Amino acid sequence: MTSLVYMQVGFWEKLASDTSREGIRTMLNISDALGNSDVITDASEEQIQKDTFLMVLIKQGNYQRCDSNYINKKVGDLNSSSSTVDLCATYMLDKIQADCEALESKYGVVILCASALSDRRYLFDGDGFSLDKAKRYPQKYVSFQK
């Protein structure tokens, strides 16, 4: 099954604005993830054409354009959704980190914001990670420790 990614254009713009070494490495990691996913984005055709990296990435993969409110509506609909596709999707949102973390905790989905990606590099390692029941973890992982 190909993974589904909902990506807001503001997420990409923030990601692309970090031209530091770590920022470029993070952008490459995200690009690899997007290259193996079906992407739904609110980026306009003009925005895609203007950003060469995004244009190549999107043109080589499967993507759909949506209107600017569609992704926020999808996130809002998670409250009553029984769609395994949407519940297993990755959301790349143009929101502050605290809002993304609150949504992750509320719905149990993976939500990324550009400002917090450096703290979550393990998501792009391609390896699973295990949790030790005896160790204390941040609140968002508590439900995994049963």
Write the layout of secondary structure elements.
Layout: E1 3-7, H1 9-17, H2 21-35, E2 37-41, H3 45-50, H4 52-60, E3 62-65, H5 70-77, H6 84-88, E4 90-93, H7 97-107, E5 110-113
Parallel strand pairs: 1-2, 1-4, 2-3, 4-5
Outline the structure in words.
It is a single chain. By secondary structure, this protein is an alpha/beta fold. It has one domain. It has helices at residues 9-17, 21-35, 45-50, 52-60, 70-77, 84-88, 97-107; strands at residues 3-7, 37-41, 62-65, 90-93, 110-113. A five-stranded parallel beta sheet has the order 3-2-1-4-5. It is globular.
Summarize the structure.
The protein is an alpha/beta fold. The protein has helices spanning 9-17, 21-35, 45-50, 52-60, 70-77, 84-88, 97-107; strands spanning 3-7, 37-41, 62-65, 90-93, 110-113. The longest helix is centred in the first third of the chain and has 15 residues, at 21-35.
By DSSP, the count of extended strands is: 5
* Beta-strand proportion: 15-25%
Note the gap between the termini.
Answer: 27 Å
Name the shape in a single word: globular
Number of domains: 1
Biggest sheet details: 5 strands, parallel
Number of helices: 7
Calculate the mean pLDDT score and round it: 80
Strand order of the largest sheet: 3-2-1-4-5
DSSP helix fraction: 40-55%
Structural class: alpha/beta
What integer value in Å does the Rg equal?
15 Å
Low-confidence stretches: 142-146
